Amino acid sequence: MSKSKAPDSAMKRPSSGFDRSLTVCHALFSCSAARWAPLPLRLIVGYGFAAHGFAKLLRGADNFSGLLHAMGLPFPHVFAWITIVTEIVGGFCIALGVLVPLVSIPMAIVLLVAIFTVHLPYGFSSINLQAITPNGAHFGEPGFETDLLYLACLAALVLGGCGPFAVDNWLFRKIDAARRATPNGVPQ
Q1: Which residue of 33, 85, 103, 178 is 20 to 30 Å from 16, comparing CA positions?
Q2: Is the pLDDT reported for residue 3 higher than 80?
Q3: d(Cα 65, Cα 78) in Å, to the nearest integer?
Q4: How crowded is the C-beta side of 31, counted as CA atoms within 13 Å?
Q5: Per residue in 138-174, pLDDT tens?
Q6: Separation of CA 40 from chain center
Q7: Is residue 16 scored above 50 in pLDDT?
Q8: Is the separation of the CB atoms in 88 and 57 below 8 Å?
Q9: What angle do CA 132, 137, 139 make, to 5 degrees?
Q10: Taking the C-alpha atoms of 113, 115, 120 and 122 in order, what is their torsion angle to the nearest 10 degrees?
């Protein structure tokens, strides 16, 4: 006697393109795959901030300071260096997942200052197409869209965690182990 196999239609295999798409979506949003979601956020936000900081530094902090002075901000030289250091150090910290809740605060402040002092008058869109000529497209000043996206990513990382390969995960495990090793859970 031989065992009969179930027909193909009885197997748990998606039959249509839509079913296959649902299966793929289910796999992507499963707990094991969802835990990786913060990693691309960390990498792009970290790279973006560091790249902007290095661009300001390579053009010269005095150039950025002059821009801040022209905008009427107080202590432009001090704020130029604070911004550059925040963007570079904060970018590396976010990319590595180091002290993300803490470094997100000055990074959010830099973004909010950029929104209200530079980008707000130009509206929401980061792409303001002004004209298309034979020489190509000409764009106006960017709006605050990109700054809001960076703020949303920082909020997602702070509220949802840093994901895998974050230094914070290692750091929090060490703190928790030290807390459990001491009496009353209070480190000496």
Answers
A1: 33
A2: no
A3: 8
A4: 0
A5: 888 888 999 999 999 999 999 998 888 899 888 888 8
A6: 8
A7: yes
A8: yes
A9: 110
A10: 120
